[in-house]
Amino acid sequence: MIRNRIAQLAPGIALCAAIALAAMGLQWVEEHWAGRPWLEALVIAILLGTVVRTLWTPDRRWGPGIGFSARTLLEIAVMLLGASISFQAVLDAGLGLILGIAVVVVLAIGASYGLGRWLGLPKRMAMLVACGNSICGNSAIAAVAPVIGAKPEDVASSIAFTAILGVIVVLTLPLLVPLLGLSMTQYGVLAGLTVYAVPQVLAATVPVSLVSTQLGTLVKLVRVLMLGPVVIALSLVAGHGRKNAKPSLSWGRLVPWFIVGFLSLAVLRSLGAVPDAILQVIVPTATLLTVISMAALGLGVDLRVLKSVGARVTLAVTLSLLVLIAISLSLIRLLGIA
């Protein structure tokens, strides 16, 4: 049983690992010739994976391992990252930030849904775009879809463009640091509030600073936890509108295991229960797993799908993202985060 599972996963994991090693090799070349890595291995892995996926479509043999790398290895990496993060970073930014995150999510969902309806998207499609943009991308879309009874084609269109736009955000968001004169703390909050997925926050903040990575990850995890209340609220609303509605909520969907693990390790680190010797092993391991996972995420992005995504969906997702960035920047200024 275990052997069969390993044999099933091995090809895809090996492919992701090969791309990750190539990315780390290119980063080494950058450091050797330019003195610093202008593109971190995390970003290079995404780009290489995307190029490979666009030029070549892996068959079923590669799928299980790629999926395992993109999800499970990534979740393990995010969980391990908790051991290097202290909650003091959030406290330093101000307790009002926690409430601010909830307000941003609510405002962004409302604004995104309104934009979608204004552009003529069906109600369910508009809600998928709104939740995906405002909370955690594909995960939010997947969680909300069965609750609101979304059509498969609506889910596919939403996820297709969100995957591509998520990579674009990761690559371009750091440019706002010099353009807007953001501090490392401000950028960490902005990344946590706007980037779609937890691992993408790492890719968007690691090249900038450790402070941005720590704060961005914590802010993002708080934002992800907003998925629970949102799904519950939508379930209650949808339940009133549909006969024989079946409950589709589960604790594992609302609070994923790796978030629990991340928060637990962060608590232990904050209490001084994680020795530095162990941390010196955990951090490189988490970094390696993250690069492998970035390669897997890149392998899931086919730039050709842009042709099949409707113009209204494209415009709705893009405008919603811009609105989310504007709301997030307003919160940063309002709270006086320096």
Structural summary, described in words:
This protein has 338 residues and is mostly helical. It has a single domain, classed as Na+/H+ antiporter like fold. It has 17 helices and no strands. Helix 10 packs antiparallel against helix 11 (198-205) and helix 11 (198-205) packs antiparallel against helix 12 (210-225). The longest helix has 33 residues, at 2-34. 44% of the residues are buried.
What's the short story on this structure?
The chain crosses the membrane at residues 38-56, 68-87, 93-115, 127-149, 155-177, 189-209, 221-239, 251-271, 277-301, 313-335. The chain has 338 residues and is mainly α. The chain has helices spanning 2-34, 41-55, 63-81, 88-93, 96-118, 123-136, 138-148, 152-172, 176-180, 184-194, 198-205, 210-225, 227-241, 251-254, 257-270, 276-299, 311-335.
Write the layout of secondary structure elements.
Blueprint lengths: L1 H33 L6 H15 L7 H19 L6 H6 L2 H23 L4 H14 L1 H11 L3 H21 L3 H5 L3 H11 L3 H8 L4 H16 L1 H15 L9 H4 L2 H14 L5 H24 L11 H25 L3
Keywords, please?
single chain; 338 residues; mainly alpha; Na+/H+ antiporter like fold; 0% strand; globular; cell membrane; transmembrane
Order of helices and strands: HHHHHHHHHHHHHHHHH
Number of strands: 0
Task: Supply the number of helical segments.
Answer: 17
Oligomerization category of the chains in this entry = single chain
